[in-house]
Protein: FAD-binding PCMH-type domain-containing protein
Amino acid sequence: MSYQVFKAHSLAELWQIFADRPDAYPIAGGTDIIPRVNQGIEFHPLFVCLDEILELYGVVWLPDGSLQIGALSKLVELAENKRLSEYHALQQACSRVASPQIRNQATIGGNVLQENRCIYFNQSVSWRREEPCFKLGGKRCYQYTRSPQCVALFQSDVAPVLMSYHAVACWQGPRGIRQTPLAELYLDAGKKAKGTDEILIALVIPPIDGVMRSAYTRETIRGSFDFPLISCAMTFVEQDGRITQATVVIGSAGVKPQYVDDIKPLLQGKTPAEAVKLMEEVQTLATKKIAPFRDSRVDAVTRKALGKSAVKRALLQVCGQDRQ
Ligand SMILES: Cc1cc2nc3c(=O)[nH]c(=O)nc-3n(C[C@H](O)[C@H](O)[C@H](O)COP(=O)(O)OP(=O)(O)OC[C@H]3O[C@@H](n4cnc5c(N)ncnc54)[C@H](O)[C@@H]3O)c2cc1C
Ligand code: SF4
Structure:
């Protein structure tokens, strides 16, 4: 099937395209959407490329100390930007996505907006089951047969890190601008709280009140070029050597990244050395967030074990007790 490709050169031009063609579908690096189109999973009659819209680029510090990252920033640029060394976990995550070729093309906006994945869904037509599953409008799930809805995993590497920094997503559409915590983008069953004509303009990381340390770890089958089986983003803010804010997010554990809120009070006021001594409690709390089903590559027990390993490595790194 053929499709049209338009290029928008400004946001104003983009809103006009959306007004004229409500079926227009935005495309950034294309590394998430194009494979699904090629596999015949999705079809869009009109793609509109965002890459010439200058308003979507740039990494800038705002007057209040927030860091604003344009949605079209390439993962490779973020990974290699020396000015971002304070955002260590972000650079770790950006440098682990897929392969160098994909990181050269992939954007941070596309990363946080990528589709949830599942081995029964991300297949070409000839390999897919005859009867469609929930995600394709059917009435069943092949991955977790008892589930009443889709449980495909959200496997973004970057979203858990941004959530651990409490990042805010800035949206713009023909009806105006809105800002929401990135975490609110992710809904049940892999759905996203975003209008079809809304564009992610930037991600804003609030100012840091103290010394920030962060780490991102992921478990994969292959050493590189692989989606995470499970991942952990951990960010501590410290004042006078004590943790004032501990944020842990577990990624690839279910349909959306999960905050582990119970860890906050556990680590509040501790020194990093004291935090490491609480390793077992931290691991137990964090791995409760891992959805208890086989994800088609590894079983539920293995997913928990891998989760413990990811959490352990993240805690050691963030507390400066691990060679990175
Ligand atoms: C082989 C392979 C391996 C991969 N491995 C990983 C991995 O290890 N980790 C990982 O996280 N990802 C991985 N990915 C997924 C993907 O490459 C990345 O998530 C990438 O960052 C997506 O960015 P993109 O710019 O290419 O997105 P696109 O494909 O252009 O877009 C993705 C989605 O976001 C929407 N979108 C993009 N930008 C905007 C915007 N500014 N406003 C509104 N909507 C927008 C698009 O409409 C589309 O729905 C892999 C992909 C492939 C093909
Ligand atoms: S998790 Fe279930 S419903 Fe979702 S894509 Fe996979 S098989 Fe389909």
